[in-house]
Structures are given as structure tokens and as C-alpha cells.
Amino acid sequence: MAFGRLERDKGTAPMSDINMTPLIDVMLVLVVIFIITAPLLASSIKLDLPKTEAAKPNDAPRFILLVLDQAGQAFVNDQPVTQVELARQLAQTAAQNPDTEVQLRADEAVPYGRVVELMGAAQKAGLNRIGFVADARAPAQK
Questions:
Q1: Measured over all CA atoms, what is the biggest interatomic distance in the chain, rounded to whole angstroms?
Q2: Which of 40, 48, 99, 122 is deepest in the core (most CB within 10 A)?
Q3: What is the helix, strand, coil percentage profile of the chain, to 5?
Q4: Any domain includes 43
Q5: Has residue 11 been placed in a domain?
């Protein structure tokens, strides 16, 4: 090194390779997009189906609400009924649609025998789908 002279670095040489990291990132994003959209594209087949009177879409499943209060009084769709009216309404509902579900809501104080009576009346009318409605239990306090 001579006096008054500064030594110079060559510096960094220009990069002659392609940086692959951004290219790989973009390709992975595209693969994820194709994986998500491929099932959606495969199930959207366009068809012109023939028209017929027999192929009508079914209505949503119907149900009738049967409630037993604490005193054992029966209610059909929130209307109080006697045992005779109950049997008539259940038979009428079964005649219209035998797949109608009976949703039975009974107070926990109602005797089990009364619940079985109503189940028997529904089955005698031809309604065999009976669902029991209950409230969710509150989470336990710690």
C-alpha cells in the first residue's frame, strides 16, 4: 500500500442465477387455489333435464308439535285439545302425510304413563316418527 492511495474493493459480483424463492411461492399459492376450486368445478355439470309431472320436489319435512304441560294437558301446535280431539287431529295429519314427524315436548314433572299414552295415540293414528324435544343442559360451573 502506497502513501496517499486508497485500496478499492471489487465489490459484489452481479448474480447470474435466477432467484427461485418467489417463483416457488407463487406456484404453491396456485396449487392451493387449484386444490380448493377443483371439486367445485367437477360437480357443476350443466344438464337439461326432461320435464314431467311426477318429478315434483318434495316439500320440507313436516312436523306436528305435541306438548304436555305440568298438569298433563295436551296441546297440538300450541292449541289445547282433549283426548278425542287429539286422536282426530293426529289421524287427519297421518291421512295427509304419513311421514309427518311428531315432536313431543313434555314437562319433566309429567308422569311417564301420560307420555306413553300420547305416543300410543300417535302410533295408532299412523304417525310412527316421534321425536323428543329437550333443552340443553347448562354447562357445569367450576
A1: 122
A2: 122
A3: 35, 15, 50
A4: no
A5: no
